[in-house]
Every structure is written in structure tokens, then in C-alpha cells.
Amino acid sequence: MDFLPLQRMWERFELSLRDSDAAAFFDLMCLGELLMKTTVLGLVAALESDKDRHQYRLLHRLVRTDGIGEWDQVLQEVLTGGAAHLLRSGARSEQKELTMRVAPESWQFEAVTALHKCLKVLNPKEERLPDKIDGRRWFSMFAHLRNGTRGHGAHVASVLGKLTPPLKRSLHLMAGNFSLFARPWAYVHRSLSGKYRFTPLSAGVSSFERLDLSSTSFTDGVYCYIDEPLLVPLLQSTPEAFDFFFPNGAFSEWRFELISYITGSTAEGDATPYREPPSQLPPSSTQGLGVLEIRGRAFTNLPPPPTEYVRRSELEQDLRDVLAFHERHQVVTLFGRGGIGKTSLALTVLNELAEQGQYAAMIWFSARDIDLLPDKPLPVAPSVLTQLDVAREFCRLTEPEGRSDKSFRHTAWFEECLREPQFGSTLFVFDNFETMQHPFDVFCNGPQSLPA
After folding, report:
1. In terms of Cα–Cα distance, which of 415, 419, 452, 450 is closest to 326?
2. pLDDT, tens digit, 9 for 90 and up, residues 356-366
3. Looking at the predicted structure, is the pLDDT value of residue 172 above 80?
4. Does the pLDDT at position 66 exceed 70?
5. N or C: which end of the chain has fewer CB within 10 A?
6. What is the pTM of this model?
């Protein structure tokens, strides 16, 4: 097997064969749990961010669950449920492999059939399989098998010995054919010198080696390459990649349990990122107004100027000068560390320009996901995350004719307004531009803008 965690588990299984039938079977069950949790975490990592926080909601569930059945439910939601529309295009192959109904000659059918044989050993009255099945059935059946053996069963070694060959066959088919395990995987670590180190966890990690690290920042962790390197949340390892840890329940206010199926050891995970309830977040304090209003001599939805703002005369004048000659600057960017005052600076100057009529219209889009309060950071709901969000918000503010028709195309209207402004000279402002999905595409295809 190319995927290192699975390879290590197969090695453990081969050793346990010398011990007993029971030991070999239970190691295969550990391998199945590792395969299942890796699949779920990998596909959850492939979800695009959205305002309803689907990805966070699913991770919130996973760190709290003590049963493998909940993992199966999360997988079903990612594949066909409320989060399915958020899967990246690159992960559609995995989605298709697990949701398409296939005939007996497929590897999915063979894998499910082998697992079904295990269930028939435990319960001869187990209902027969349909003529066509989908691959996601394997995960539900594995959860059933796990609960009937490791969870609640008390079977003698002779029974477990009958289960081992078909279970091994089923796991070989899943691990050897599912596209997710053939992707590039790596552990990414940044050394004290600031250089990134990639520890390969699978074959073909050239995708990681070709990355331009001068303009990319990575958090230490396990990554899967699906269109781009995606941090796989809740799957933990080290730069040496000796062991791999998965969530195993026991959630408390500050920590949850992690388990290694390879060595059987446990560790503690930090529960702090998952303490917030998965409910809808409040809007940012700098979210744009809900309507366009006349402010001075411009139409705008700008938030009001900040009340507690320390004036920066030189920076304010620099920004005024740049925006005064807007035809020379298609894109203006304010950059600096979080909380330094970029948004406050922009709002101060922009509200002044609105009074002066420097632009006929000034449209504010907020992608802010955290308000940095004096005492603590506060998670907030971004108003826009995607190019489509931007187009829809623009249409909502400008109220074009026919916008309520089903055939109305928000992006087409927005693109038309970029080519021929409907309100005269228009300034588009993006607060926390870097938190948008695919910011590079928006940057290249977008209008004259001020990312703040």
C-alpha cells in the first residue's frame, strides 16, 4: 500500500497472524477504523468554506463522538447530504466512487460483498445484497460489523477466524482502489529556520515539491493534495511520521482523546478550536450596510467610520493620494498583521472620499471571519466568501431589473457592470480579502478594488 498509515497497519496485521486468529481479526478491525476515519477526515478537508460553517459543524461532531457509527453519518452528509455541494471539484472522483451504483464486476461491489460475508457469519439471516450497490454502503456495514464484534460482541476465536479472510479481502480492495489513498499525502513541518520540510506519506509527492513556498504559509500537520494542499484536520502525526493519531471521543472543555491504531497508544488533542457551538455566527462589526445609501456625494454601503481610531495622518494621506488617481491603480492593497488597523484606516479615508464625491459609488464586501476585540478574538460570519457571493450581494444592493426571475444570472450582471459601470466611477472594497475562497481568481478577475 502506498499510503503510509495503511502500510503500517498491514505490517501490524502480518505480525499478529503469528499470534492468534483473534489478534489478527482485531488488528484488521483497527485497520478498518483507520481507513474509515482517514476517508471521513480527508473528504471533510475537501469541503469549501461557507457562511453556514458546514465543515466546522462536522468537525464539531467528530471530536465529540465515541462511536464509529457517527463517523459513517458524517461521511453520508459529505457525500450526499447538506455538505455535498461544497466538495471541491477535485474530490468529485472520490464522491463518484462511493455514490455511484455499480455492478458485481466493480471493486466496490466486491469489497461490499466480502464484508457482507462477515455479517452473514455473525447472522445467517442477514438480508441479501441488491444487484447494484454504491461504495458508501461499505462504511455503514463496517460500522455494523464493528459494533457486532469489538463493540458489543463476545465471539470465540473460531468464529473470528472465519471472519478474517473475507474482512482482509474487503480491506485490500478498499485500500488498494479508493482514489483518496492514491493521492499525494505528506506531513508538512516548518523548521526553526523558517524552511518547510515535507515528509512523504504516499507515492507521488512531487505536487508538494513544486509548491512556491515563498508565498505560501502552512500550519504543521498532515496534508492531502486535492487541487491544492489541504490540511487534514484532526489527523495528527509528527515530522518523522512514526505514528498517526485519530479522534477517539472523551471530549471535555479543554481536550479530547486521540488514539493510534498502529501502536495502540493514546494522546490528548486540544479541544479549544471546537468549543464554539456550530450555530450561526453574528455579523462582523465592519460588515457593510444592508442597502446603498447616499453619503455625501456617493452611493455606498460603507460601514460608519470607527469611533475608537488613532489617526495616522501620513498613511491616510498616502491612501487618499493613491485613490485620487484611481485610473492609474486597478488594484490597491493594504497589508500588515492582523489587528494593526488596516480596516479602520480604510474606513476613515473612504468615508471622507464619499463626502467629497471622489467616486460615484463605493461598494463594500466583508469576508471577515474574526473580529479582533481588545479582550479576545470573536468568530463572526463573513458576508461573502466566493465570487458568486460577491455577485449576489452586488445584485441585492443594486436591485437590477429582472433579478427575481429564475433565469437571472447574478455573475453575468456583475460582469456587465464591471465592463460598463451603471453608476459611474465605482470603487469595490474587500475587507479581509485573504479569507475568501480562491482569492487569486477573484484578484485576477475582479474589478478595481481595495483589498483591506
Report:
1. 450
2. 888 889 999 99
3. yes
4. yes
5. N
6. 0.74
For residue 242, count other CB atoms closer than 10 A to its CB: 12
The three grid cell numbers given for residue 195, joined into one nine-digit string: 524552511
Eight-state DSSP code of residue 227: S
Give CA angle at 278 (99, 301), nearest 5°: 105
* Grid cell listed for 267: 494522546
- Written as nine digits, the cell of 260 is 493510534
| Alpha carbon distances (Å) from 445 to 330, 331, 387 | 11, 11, 9
CA pair distance 153, 166, nearest whole angstrom: 18
Q: What residue ranges in 288-439 does DSSP mark as E strands?
A: 293-295, 298-300, 361-366, 370-372, 377-379, 426-431
Pairing of strands 293-295, 255-259: unpaired
Element (H, E) at 224: strand 221-226
Across 314-339, average pLDDT: 79
List where CATH 3.40.50.300 sits in the chain: 293-451
The CA distance from 7 to 313, in Å, is 61
Tell whether the model's pLDDT for residue 18 goes beyond 90: no
Report the percent of the chain where pLDDT is more than 90: 46
Would you say 22 and 157 are in contact if contact means Cβ atoms under 8 Å apart?
A: yes
pLDDT of residue 154 exceeding 70: no
Write down the pLDDT at residue 152.
47
Give me the sign of the Cα torsion angle 132, 135, 138, 139.
Answer: negative
- 3-state class of 228 per DSSP? strand
What is the number of alpha carbons within 13 Å of residue 176 lying toward its C-beta?
11
Q: Please count the other Cβ atoms lying within 10 Å of the Cβ belonging to residue 303.
A: 19
Angle between helices 107-122 and 157-177 (to 10 degrees): 170
Tell me, what's the pLDDT at 114? Answer: 96
- Integer Cα distance of 381 and 137 in angstroms: 35
**Nearest Cα to Cα of residue 358 among 382, 322, 314, 316:** 322
Helix (H) or strand (E) holding 198: strand 196-200
**49 three-state secondary structure:** coil
Q: Report, in angstroms and rounded to the nearest whole number, the Rg of the chain calculated over CA atoms.
A: 27
Q: pLDDT band at 255, cuts 50/70/90? A: very high
- Between 127 and 95, whose confidence is greater? 95
221 Ramachandran zone, left/alpha/beta (phi>0; psi -120 to 50):
left
Length of the chain: 452
Average per-residue pLDDT in the chain? 87
Of the chain, the end-to-end C-alpha distance in Å amounts to 47
Q: What is the mean pLDDT of residues 345-350?
A: 90
Q: Quick one: average pLDDT of 295-319?
A: 86
